[in-house]
# Entry
Amino acid sequence: MEINLISDTITKPTQEMLQYMFKAEVGDDVYKQDPTVIALEAKLAAMFGMEAGLFFPSGTMANQTAIKLHTQPGEQLIADKYAHVYHYEGGGASFNSGVSCCLLDGKRGMITAEQVAAAINDPEFYHSPLTSLVCVENTTNKGGGACYELEDLKKIKAVCVANNLKFHLDGARIWNALVVKKQDPKDFGKLFDTISVCLSKGLGAPIGSVLLADKATIHRALRIRKILGGGMRQVGYLAAAGIYAIDNNVERLAEDHRRAKELASVLNKASWVSSVEPVETNILIFSLAANCSDQVLIEKLKQKNISISSMGHGKLRIVTHLDYREVMHTYVLETLEKLTI
# Structure
């Protein structure tokens, strides 16, 4: 029994999802003639109270399109120092849009309105790049699955409005936040100019993200997606997986959250662990005691058929997901309780 806790991106479609995909009605989406893609885009737009959506093969492409929509070369975006758009998208902000990133020292990947306000360059001071965009991530990846409070996002939005800045949400794990905080997706739709929503992480679809915005912005995004090579043909088979995932796999995310917290409880008692970061959703980050090696731990767990990932500097990450079943969870808990390093 192989147990992969490296990421929630490693899940595979269930038989039920595959059957739903096989039955999809498809067309040529480059010509906007794929009815299943159109249905997915409309479904998500309605859920978040936004006008339109556009299907993308990846969250990175959706985020990079949003940055391109909201900025001009030479301008600057504001984000947390752990932001996915900065750390894990291949330098795309500079390559695709020619913008720089002003990185803030947030808390667990989350920034505040006060930090944003202090980071905005004077638009009349032409020696500095013009600040034009604020990007936030919810939940935070490198921040350990932390979730923003809506009130904090509203305060950042007020700063954006006052300073004529656009506001983008990297919602790669927005579903986890919605479940744990019992929030309404429409509240997010009211705040952001663009939202990227991932279907292939917690929800278990094999591929796909959707960018949400108003109709005019999505019309512009269609051209950028084309330039980036994101136009696909009979992609309704993949969009169908997204529809199935939304209809069937959202509420069950609470199971992932419970299991992550139970793993954290065991790790908190382990002599070889120095600290465990707070767990809100399905990401668990912990640090080893000074005399322990992360590579030694990873190897010992591999011998038990358990895979986790190192973040460097003695920090490790565990991510629970759809394919991590209760029988696996029981085995991992027992293994961690008995483990010595």
